[in-house]
Design a protein that fits this description.
43% of the residues lie in helices and 17% in strands. It is of the alpha/beta class. It has a single domain, classed as 3-Layer(aba) Sandwich (Rossmann fold). The protein has a 5-stranded parallel sheet with strand order 2-1-3-4-5, with helices on both faces. A two-stranded antiparallel sheet has the order 6-7.
Length: 183
């Protein structure tokens, strides 16, 4: 099976491409560094030719509300249109647990909610995989909350996942049938 991984050179994408390849799939990493830009649409038609599945693990380069909204609107719109044109049979996307609830408080999550809506409204069969934050982000969170010798973190519970586990969940979804729902 030919599986194109949008964001295939990033933290999750590189692990996903490796896992899919190890399980006998032809996995192609697609990212701006490989000549594929989902925001402009450059390279999409070529990389999607013959693809059975597209997995989108890309992320906005900015968490700024307006920039994230613009990224997910353009990227997801271009990607789904190109998939429909190419006859792709399954779109798999990575999103975040409780996106709908978090959208009320965050422009980034409003952008992720928009991404999910665009996917649901598309004619391409889909599976949206929700994950929690990754363990790999903990250092960056602590660094951002550090001022001198003091670390200030909100008293909230978190339940992070390892990036390898997220990639495995994405690989299982990609190799499976479209669920047309969030898993």
């Amino acid at each position: 099976m030919l599986i194109v991984v949008i964001g295939g050179t990033g933290l999750i994408g590189s692990k996903l491409v490796r896992q899919l390849s190890e399980h006998g799939h032809r996995a192609v990493a697609a990212a701006p560094s490989t000549g594929v830009d989902t925001v402009t649409g450059d390279g999409l038609a070529d990389v999607l030719a013959g693809a059975d599945v597209v997995v989108d693990v890309s992320n906005s380069p900015s968490f700024d509300d307006d920039a994230a909204l613009e990224f997910f609107e353009k990227s997801t719109g271009n990607l789904l249109a190109a998939e429909a044109q190419a006859g792709v049979g399954h779109h798999v996307a990575l999103s975040v647990v409780n996106t709908d609830q978090l959208a009320e408080q965050s422009g980034y999550f409003r952008a992720k909610a928009l991404q999910e809506r665009l996917i649901r409204q598309s004619p391409v069969p889909y599976t949206i995989v929700h994950a929690t934050q990754f363990y790999e982000f903990v250092k960056g969170i602590a660094d951002a909350a550090t001022d001198g010798d003091i670390v200030r973190l909100a008293p909230v519970l978190i339940q992070p996942m390892a990036a390898a586990d997220v990639a495995e969940a994405m690989a299982i979804a990609a190799a499976g049938k479209p669920q047309n729902r969030i898993v």
